[in-house]
Specification:
single chain; alpha+beta; Lipocalin; 3 helices
C-alpha cells in the first residue's frame, strides 16, 4: 500500500507541476454507531472505482484531459469487496488490505499504513500532498 500511495502521490505531483492527506481509526465505542448508521454499510462502496478527475494547484482536469496533457492515462483503480477487503492497482503495482466505512470516511489498512479517503456525492476522494484524485464507480 505504501508503494501505491507513493505512486499516486507522484502522479498528483506530476499533475501539479504540469498544471502550474489524514489518518484516523475507528474506536471500539464507535462500533455500535457503525452498525446502526446506514451510511456505514460497506455495500454502498463495494465495486470498482476508477479515476475521474484530478485537482491540484487550483486546477481541475478530467482524466481524459490529463491523459492528453501528460501523454499517458493514469493506470489506477480501487476495488472494494463485500468481505471488507480491497485491492488497489496503480502504476502496475497492486496493494491489498481491509477497509471500513465510518460515515463519509473510508479507512483502508494494510500491513504498513492506514489511508483515509472520503465519500462525497457518490465519488471517492483521495487527498495527497495538496492534490486530490476523485474516483467514480466503474
Amino acid at each position: 500500500m505504501r508503494k501505491i500511495c507513493v505512486v499516486l502521490a507522484l502522479f498528483l505531483y506530476a499533475f501539479m507541476l504540469a498544471a502550474c492527506g489524514s489518518g484516523g481509526s475507528i474506536e471500539n465505542d464507535e462500533i455500535s454507531g457503525i452498525i446502526e448508521n446506514p451510511k456505514n454499510n460497506i455495500n454502498i462502496i463495494v465495486g470498482t472505482w476508477v479515476p475521474e478527475r484530478i485537482e491540484a494547484g487550483g486546477e481541475s482536469l478530467s482524466i481524459d484531459e490529463y491523459a492528453e496533457m501528460a501523454g499517458a492515462s493514469p493506470d489506477a483503480l480501487i476495488e472494494f469487496k463485500g468481505d471488507g477487503t480491497f485491492a488497489i492497482v496503480a502504476g502496475g503495482e497492486t496493494g491489498i488490505g481491509d477497509f471500513s466505512l465510518s460515515g463519509d470516511l473510508i479507512q483502508m489498512n494494510d500491513d504498513v499504513q492506514t489511508t483515509v479517503l472520503s465519500l462525497a456525492d457518490e465519488k471517492i476522494i483521495l487527498d495527497i500532498d495538496g492534490g486530490r484524485m476523485i474516483f467514480a464507480r466503474k
